[in-house]
Amino acid sequence: MSPIISVSNLSKTYGSGFKALNNINLEINKGEIFALLGPNGAGKTTLISIICGIANPSQGKIAVAGHDIVSDYRAARSMIGLVPQELHTDAFESVWATVSFSRGLFGKPKNPAHIEKVLKDLSLWDKKDNKIVTLSGGMKRRVMIAKALSHEPQILFLDEPTAGVDVELRKGMWEVVRALQASGVTIILTTHYIEEAEEMADRIGVINKGEIILIENKTTLMQKLGRKQLTLQLQGRLDCVPPALAAYNLELSSDGRAVTYDYDTKGERTGITSLLSDLRNAGVRISDLDTRQSSLEDIFVSLVRAP
Q1: For position 109, what pLDDT does the model report?
Q2: Of the candidates 156, 213, 198, which has an alpha carbon nearest to the alpha carbon of residue 181?
Q3: Does residue 299 surpass a pLDDT of 80?
Q4: pLDDT reported for residue 266
Q5: 175 in the same domain as 135
Q6: Rounded to whole angstroms, how far apart are CA atoms 61 and 44?
Q7: Distance (Å, rounded) from C-alpha 261 to C-alpha 40?
Q8: Exposed, middle or buried by CB within 10 Å (0-12, 13-18, 19+), for 279?
Q9: Using CA atoms, how far apart are residues 240 and 260, in angstroms rounded to an integer?
Q10: Cα separation of 228 and 40, whole Å?
Q11: Cα–Cα distance between 60 and 201 in angstroms, integer?
Q12: Which of the 8 DSSP states describes residue 263?
């Protein structure tokens, strides 16, 4: 199956000489949720802006469902809905008028039934006659999503969509995203809430200093780079780790009543069986144990910190 978005050898250099993007190659599959992660200034918003036709590339090509974003701009752009970080709305217009106007900008005929469905899906129907200025920040964010969906795009970009949104609204918004994916819409999101990417995304891309450093299926990524930590609660207190256990690189807790052991989940042997045997031989008795899998956030931090 051909990708719905194809980015080839994309670079962006500003007039000041700053290189925001360097030789980006990326393919996004139809119907997936793709999360783009990276620290501030990594190039996430620049990449999205170029794919959406808002900014011009310095070199490289982008195709949206086979349409070149430069030479066939109108066809490519009509397939894309964009929810930017900043809240840009006509503050004194009603919700209904604002969303309906956005549909008209793409040359789409009036379709009150579609606008009604979008507003109901986003829990905005009871606010349809309210002026934007009267809405909360979370509701304004939902209006931005409604505007992006007004022309029935096949691709939806969400650039930090839940910034400033309370937990309840955030959960509701992700229910909407899941429903959109189920209807066949491709979702590309950037987020600072890495737990959301861990929960929602099918694939993860990590960008740092203008370069894509990793693209991977989320589950595969967790298996490849994930580590587990075994914490052993001790029956007695230790002043130090016995020399016979030095090879395990155990970390002793500050109170001397627990040790932690890190091991690789993809390794053929974890070393746990031999560790438990050696602990017993060293006279160290265990009262309890538990394990912790490294999170996507742990993996992300380790990637962007790597030299």
Answers
A1: 92
A2: 156
A3: no
A4: 56
A5: yes
A6: 17
A7: 33
A8: buried
A9: 13
A10: 28
A11: 27
A12: E
**Do 80 and 137 fall into the same domain?**
yes
Using CB atoms within 10 Å of the CB of residue 98, give its burial: 0 to 12 exposed, 13 to 18 middle, 19+ buried. buried
Cα 146 to the center of its chain, rounded Å: 20
Which of the listed residues 193, 222, 251 is the one where a domain comes to its end?
222
SS3 112: helix
- Largest Cα separation within the chain, whole Å, is 79
In DSSP terms, 59 is beta-bridged to: 11
Q: What is the pLDDT of residues 23-82, one digit of tens each?
A: 999 999 999 999 998 887 888 889 999 999 889 999 999 999 999 999 999 999 999 999
Range of the domain at 268: 227-305
Q: What is the pLDDT of residues 253-298, one digit of tens each?
A: 999 999 988 876 555 567 888 888 889 898 899 888 887 766 666 6
Q: Are residues 73 and 148 in the same domain?
A: yes
User: What is the pTM for the complete model shown?
Assistant: 0.73
Considering the chain, what is the average pLDDT of its residues? 86
Residue 57 sits at the vertex; the CA angle it makes with 56 and 61, to the nearest 5 degrees, is: 120
pLDDT above 90 (res 110): yes
Nearest to 209 by CA among 7, 25, 24, 59: 24
Q: Alpha-carbon distance 58 to 10, whole Å?
A: 8
Are residues 160 and 259 part of one domain?
no
- CA dist 151 to 73, 110, 163, Å? 16, 10, 24
Place of tokens 């009262």: 287
Domain boundary among 185, 200, 222: 222
CATH number for the domain spanning 235: value is 3.30.70
